[in-house]
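User: quick one, fold this
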Amino acid sequence: MKNIKKTILGLASAVVCMASFTSCLEETFPTTAATDEMIATSSTATAAMAMGMPAKFSDVWSTSSHCYFGYPAEMIFRDMLTGDAYHYGETGYSHFISWQRNQYMGDGYMKTQFHWNYHYGFLLAINGVIGAVNEEVANEVQKGYKGAAYAFRAQIYLDLARMYEFLPNDIFPDGKNSEGTTVAGLTVPIVTDATTDEEARNNPRAPHAEMAAFILEDLDNAERLIEGLPSTEGQTLPDLSVVYGLKARLYMWNEDYANAKDYARRAINATKIKPISQAKALSTTAGFNTATDFMWAGQQTSENESVSTGIINWTSWVSNQTTFGYTGGSTALYYVMDKKMYERISDTDWRKLMFKAPSGSALDGMNVYITAADAKGAPDYTALKFRPGNGDREDYSAGAAVAYPIMRVEEMYFIEAEAAAHLNAAEGKNLLIEFMQANRDKNYETVAVDQEDVIEEIVFQKRVEFWGEGQTFFDIKRLNYSVTRGYPGTNCQDQTSRLNTNGRPAWMNVVMVQTEKN
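Assistant:
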């Protein structure tokens, strides 16, 4: 506790120029960047510029609050907007609690400003790479980096579109906003490397179909060019399998299930990555923190600003087994799975061991901890999924220097199964059983028969698989599923967070910020 309070005070004293808006913030890029002429003639210069893209994954946007550390923070935000993950214990320490409570999510708050500024700042870096590589004179390696940039841009716009698209809900069932304007299906403005200042000033939200066509064009360009990429740099740059995976995600968003199924299988066949094993997943040193287990990864290193802060990083907030982070023993704040979700998982499914078993239950005593101290004080259902680097729970420069998943091959198996189920329930069910029995639970079975029940079972198993990885938000919103946090015996400790919805939550239509409207 003493260490984390000392770090918090040190960071707080450094904060300047930050209020509810961020008009005083500017995107800052290195002044030693390669010039356009250098990029046009040098593969090395192109590579240097391109590596700025994966660096943006771990970019600290602001230290005014300790939840603004780039893409992994977005993953946590999205999970907190579902009913699968909670902060439990000393919630006064939680900088993410507003998302869990659906508070301060309006267009005038810094929390929503982060989503907007971070993603469009990311796009600025990506557009710089795309605009700098002239295909008419570029060599194959340079074209490969441009292909990677197209994949990055597709990834960011697909996330933005799925977050901001206005879909009907119990509060706004007719697709109109609070001002009475029909906004159903609208996503976000499209800004490319060719967008002029004048165009940017009059750039309305793209409808779903227009955005989908734009993303598909980027992915087609990525597919055409990316094979010239000499290396994925430790899975931090996308390869062809990732492009196929992004197409699978896009087609699911479009409800084009035949193509979603096809491209999910293409991604599986194209990647060298296999589903993570039980031994690796439950490892106290390498559990869900190693890039080689992922198709596409973000990577925190000891040189990253997010790591050097000690607490404004992925590990600080998702690993309940550190002494330097927010979650775990240092603050008595824990990241936990929803009780009903945990209870629905079969005891023979090894993924259940990634969460603390209640005393007296069938799995009590079977969890594996880095040290015995990690078990003490931790509430039931505490996540053990994300281990600190090399199991180092004391030294943040080592423990927080980990990878986190942007895309895993397991997602492709679940997309394939769900897409198949939309076309033929029996085929989707069989694909799910095949994956589960081969990789997660050799005794797995399901009584689901009807198409709706089969799809729900597939998505539930996907939610278990990707707990804490920010994927569930997209499925709940897409499929119009309800969120239920308030029920007898709930472990959603924070009473303000016990929100139940009828269908997709209205809060999953993330709002545009006031500064953009202005």
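User: anything notable?
Assistant: Residues 137 and 201 are 32 Å apart (CA to CA).
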